[in-house]
Amino acid sequence: MRLMEGTRKARVAKLAGLAGLVAVAASGCSTDEVLRFGWPVGITPQADSMRDLWTGSVIAALAVGLIVAILILWPVVFHRKRSEELPKQLQYNHPLEIVYTVIPVVIVAVLFYFTATTENYVTDKSHTPDVTVDVIGFQWNWEFKYDNYKTPDGNPVSTVGSSSEIPLLVLPTKKWIQYNLLSTDVIHSFWVPAFNFKRDVFPDPDKNNQDSSFQNTIDQTGAFVGHCAELCGAYHSAMNFEVRALPDDLFQQYMSLRTKVNTKTGKPYTASEALAEMNCGDLCAPLATTTHPFNTDRTARTGS
Questions:
Q1: Residue 2 confidence (pLDDT) above 70
Q2: How is 17-68 classified by DSSP, letter by letter?
Q3: CA 55/CA 60 separation, integer angstroms
Q4: Residues in domain Cytochrome oxidase subunit II transmembrane region profile (predicted)?
Q5: What is the pLDDT of residues 67-96, one digit of tens each?
Q6: How far is CA 17 from CA 8, 24, 43, 70, in A?
Q7: Domains identified in the chain and CATH numbers
Q8: Mean pLDDT highest for which of 70-79, 101-110, 199-208?
């Protein structure tokens, strides 16, 4: 009997190991992709912190689920009815009941601690920002205003999207950035998937149930798509923008151009004109590379 039970246990362990190996191999995912559990690769330390919290929470949940499954399947497999005699009853085993109560409380407390510390880190605004940008959402566009940089006419450097250009939010890497969010009409939502972060944009900050500003730093250069993540009207799906992360020296060069007059047009440089003037490859592409404007030409499509 013991030999049969030992053989059965070994068979179950082998089958479980094989199932796990097949699951990992069939997914075609790298170790990093598996541990991200579907989360995108973040480009900020705050994004990495949230991903680590997610990874730890999922691993903890899987471990608890596995233990529960074992506790359920163990009596089903190894304690099946063999006679009319009742097995030993444990419903009044107080030490065991205390263990079953304490363990979930400890798990919840640990998850609460790591959630609270991660949230405090992500929402921390104690740093003196190197760049402050006002993010203004309106149907169905974005304006990015840099109050610390002035054009020759004395107005803040500002970028607004159009029917032909996606608005570019140009930012430096390795610097603290503060985003001040405001809507001029309905509720929008500022969402950059590469930040692993989004926040609603309210018309009245005084009636906002969440903080209307946040800070972060960006780790890597590149172009990253942004969206409005709050249904805000007919053209909500076309309300995209692009974050263009530049090394600080290129960012300063970009801002230097934005604060000057373009001799070709007689007006201050626009975002696309400044980037084109810099001529630094794909990183300075004058137009968005991650998304495209909504085609407003009514003759662009034909009826079926």
A1: no
A2: HHHHHHHHHHHT--HHHHHHTTPPPPSSHHHHHHHHHHHHHHHHHHHHHHHH
A3: 9
A4: 29-126
A5: 999 988 888 887 777 777 777 777 777 888
A6: 14, 11, 35, 14
A7: 10-79+91-122 (no CATH), 131-284 (2.60.40.420)
A8: 101-110
